[in-house]
Design brief:
Layout: H1 2-7, E1 12-15, H2 26-35, E2 39-44, H3 51-58, E3 63-68, H4 74-80, H5 85-98, E4 105-107, H6 121-127
Parallel strand pairs: 1-2, 2-3, 3-4
Helix pairs in contact: 3-5
Length: 133
């Protein structure tokens, strides 16, 4: 399919979830696509964004990563997503930042449960490099 996308001159594919990085061949498909001029955008909860995977992503200019975060603090985010998901997302962002990736994004689904928590989001921006918030 990637070869067909390249022939059709598709610039980017956007991969959503579930969680795309748990697919056993995700990283190989990402590498194959980007090495064949098909960029990859994907959203992740960060579960597989180890320092090694973050370094591979940071070295690839044809990748766009969105980290899912549905609360500005662990209490709200974990209520919506699951226990430990806030820390996992923050760790993934730190891994990306430490690897030198400056343009990753946050993906937030706004709900009545999390909108009030975003008044404290200034704290999150301060904790991350300005280009990462």
């Amino acid at each position: 399919m990637i070869d067909e996308l390249q022939r059709m001159q598709v610039f980017y594919v956007n991969i959503g979830g579930g969680e795309p990085t748990v697919r056993s061949d995700f990283w190989e498909l990402l590498e194959y696509a980007t090495s064949n001029s098909v960029g990859v955008k994907f959203s992740t909860n960060g579960v597989k964004l180890t320092p090694e995977n973050a370094a591979m992503l940071a070295a690839n200019d044809y990748v766009d990563v969105q980290i899912s975060l549905d609360g500005a603090d662990a209490e709200v985010n974990d209520y919506i997503r699951s226990a430990g998901s806030y820390d996992m997302a923050i760790r993934a962002m730190e891994n990306l930042q430490n690897a030198g990736m400056k343009n990753f994004k946050l993906s937030v689904v706004c709900t009545r449960w999390n909108i009030p928590s975003w008044t404290s989001s200034k704290r999150l921006r301060i904790d991350m490099e300005p280009s990462c918030a």
